[in-house]
Amino acid sequence: MTLSINGKRSGNINIMKAILTFHSIDDSGSVLSYPPSLFAQLLENLHNANLSVVNLDTILAPTTQHGVTLTFDDGMRSVYNNALPILRDHAAPAHIFITTNAVGTEQQWPKQPSDVPSFDMLSWDNIEQLHQSGVAIDAHTHPDMRKLSTEQMAAECEQANDEIERRIGRRPEFFAYPFGYHNKQARDYSRKLYTGSVTTELRSLSHQEDHAALPRLDSYYLQSPWLLNNLSSPLTKGYIQLRWLLRTLRGSHCTANYDDQ
């Protein structure tokens, strides 16, 4: 099976199994933004290639051999304005990890690069409509979980879970670690509360994953037409591995293999 761009087919992707990360769907060009036209093209390409877009429960099932799951972090309003119509057109499921204390505000995160604009965040009305449209509303917070006690983690996560359940009638099943940071204590805690927790570790899914530390492919690195045409090629895999190594050396993501007892 191949992925096509502009009618041209290239690259065997039927073995691809990955969770993709998005933040804002807009044309600002920031590192947290993915163009709406490219997002639509990506979903069209996946459809043409018969590569299923599935939810997290499905992608994590042992019987699932290949597929893609779409996730959005933080809760930017552009997900409602720009991504939702495209998701509807393709009947594609997705997950959005909501930072509840940012709902209805204009945000610029403390560690956000200076060239990234502030973002209008979703309102609870937007979130309700996303939920009704089949987008799973899941939990996200913003303190570094490695620096919290178990009691502080519980306060952060339970407050977010309670607020989401109160607003939409569904309790979150999945969690996104703030900035992707986690350690053994955070993973142990998340296993008790969630079906799975996602990180920012840059790689596709293997056959056996710790569901408390799931890797994802950041869409920032998937904007080149060549890469989208050749997602399973050795060159693309090598490129992702190189980006993984660079991010590891910079300490900009965590892996579950670190000595973090």
Number of strands: 13
Low-confidence stretches: 1-14
Coarse structural class:
alpha/beta
How far apart are the first and last residues' alpha carbons, in Å? 43 Å
| Helix coverage percent | 25-40%
Rg from Cα: 17 Å
Give the SSE string: EEEEEHHEHEEEHEHEHEEHH
Overall pLDDT metric = 87
Word description of this protein:
The chain has 261 residues and is an alpha/beta fold. It contains 8 helices and 13 strands. The chain has helices at residues 36-48, 56-59, 77-89, 124-132, 150-168, 184-193, 225-229, 234-250, and strands spanning 2-5, 8-12, 17-22, 24-25, 33-34, 67-74, 94-99, 106-107, 119-120, 135-140, 174-176, 196-202, 214-218. A 7-stranded parallel beta barrel has the order 3-6-7-10-11-12-13, surrounded by 4 helices. Strands 1-2 form a two-stranded antiparallel sheet. Helix 1 (36-48) packs parallel to helix 3 (77-89). The longest helix has 19 residues, at 150-168. The termini are far apart. Residues 1-14 have low confidence and may be disordered.
In short:
The protein is built from eight helices and 13 strands.
Record the SSE blueprint.
Blueprint: E1 2-5, E2 8-12, E3 17-22, E4 24-25, E5 33-34, H1 36-48, H2 56-59, E6 67-74, H3 77-89, E7 94-99, E8 106-107, E9 119-120, H4 124-132, E10 135-140, H5 150-168, E11 174-176, H6 184-193, E12 196-202, E13 214-218, H7 225-229, H8 234-250
Parallel strand pairs: 3-6, 3-13, 4-5, 6-7, 7-10, 10-11, 11-12, 12-13
Antiparallel strand pairs: 1-2, 8-9
Helix pairs in contact: 1-3
